[in-house]
Amino acid sequence: QYWSEDTVFFDDDFPYSIFSLYLQDEFQMTEDLIATIGARRDAYTNISNPITPRGALVYYPMKNSTIKLLYGEAFRVPNMYEIHYEDQTTNQKRSFNLHSEKIQTTELIWEQRLSDGLFSRLSLFNYNMKNLIDNMMVDEVDSIYQFINISRARAIGFELSIKAQLEVGLSGYANYSFQDAINSDTEEKLTNSPNHLLKLGIAYPVTKHIDGAIECQYEAKRNTVYDTATEPFFLTNLTLAIHPDDERIRLSLLARNIFNVTYATPGGYEHLQPSIPQDGRNFTAKLEINL
């Protein structure tokens, strides 16, 4: 429903049902090789969808090594607003011919235990998306806006992570990812999609009842829908957790963006500004009591 004091712009009901079935089986092909095969079938009363398969091969070449090859497909059905909403005041009409957005993913993963407390993971990925539902586009026949399946996209990249857990209680992680995401039809870089992401974190028990942690995050620029770009930024967060002998009580103190970095993230077509400023330095306190 959408109305004002004197006008009803839209008022309708759209009941629907969903039926889903998922099957999966695992095969121990050899002592060091496992195959997993699965498929899912989703049936919506308002839109049809094919069977989506998934598969995995897991290989153990050495005692502390694992190699995984993963493939999967998934979809997102159009929501009720994208299909049915219409409004003469904004020149928007219904979109009965929408198809589901679909994605195919392929990933190759290598997991390695470097020592008793040190783990590493390298992932190479390739994503292909089609039938992406774009923001309202003009129908050239009647100059009215509607949602349509308009574009395809692909993304390739890799992710490298290392986790450490030392006997003294010190733990940490480092994670770096690179991705190149473009519109397959225009070869233009996707908006709101940074090439580089970096996260670092360290946690340490300051005392028996106090744990401290610091996390740093770097993000490269993101393109906006207005052909501009946000500035790269580096954020630092601090966390202090206090837990007395009585484990029912826990107090957490979080300081975000402690250096008060000025940064912004891209907006959408519905925003007047190309990017949305984010919070500066801010603090959160949380008290948990388990009765």
Would you kindly provide a written description of the structure presented here, covering whatever features stand out?
- With 291 residues, this protein is mainly beta.
- The protein has one helix at 80-84; strands at 2-3, 8-10, 18-30, 33-44, 52-59, 65-76, 101-115, 118-133, 137-139, 144-146, 149-165, 171-183, 196-207, 210-219, 233-242, 249-256, 264-266, 275-277, 282-289.
- It starts with a strand and ends with a strand.
Strand order of the largest sheet: 3-4-5-6-7-8-11-12-13-14-15-16-19
Average pLDDT score: 90
Radius of gyration, in Å, reads 24 Å
Low-confidence stretches: none
- The count of β-strands is 19
- Taken as a percent bin, the fraction of beta residues is over 45%
Structural class designation? mainly beta
Shape: globular
Instruction: Work out the helix count.
Output: 1
Helix content: under 10%
Order of helices and strands: EEEEEEHEEEEEEEEEEEEE
> What distance lies between the first and last C-alpha atoms, to the nearest angstrom?
42 Å
| Main sheet summary | 13 strands, antiparallel
Brief summary:
The chain is mostly beta strands. It has one helix at residues 80-84; strands spanning 2-3, 8-10, 18-30, 33-44, 52-59, 65-76, 101-115, 118-133, 137-139, 144-146, 149-165, 171-183, 196-207, 210-219, 233-242, 249-256, 264-266, 275-277, 282-289.
Ordered list of secondary-structure elements with their pairings:
Blueprint: E1 2-3, E2 8-10, E3 18-30, E4 33-44, E5 52-59, E6 65-76, H1 80-84, E7 101-115, E8 118-133, E9 137-139, E10 144-146, E11 149-165, E12 171-183, E13 196-207, E14 210-219, E15 233-242, E16 249-256, E17 264-266, E18 275-277, E19 282-289
Antiparallel strand pairs: 1-2, 3-4, 4-5, 5-6, 6-7, 7-8, 8-11, 9-10, 11-12, 12-13, 13-14, 14-15, 15-16, 16-19, 17-18
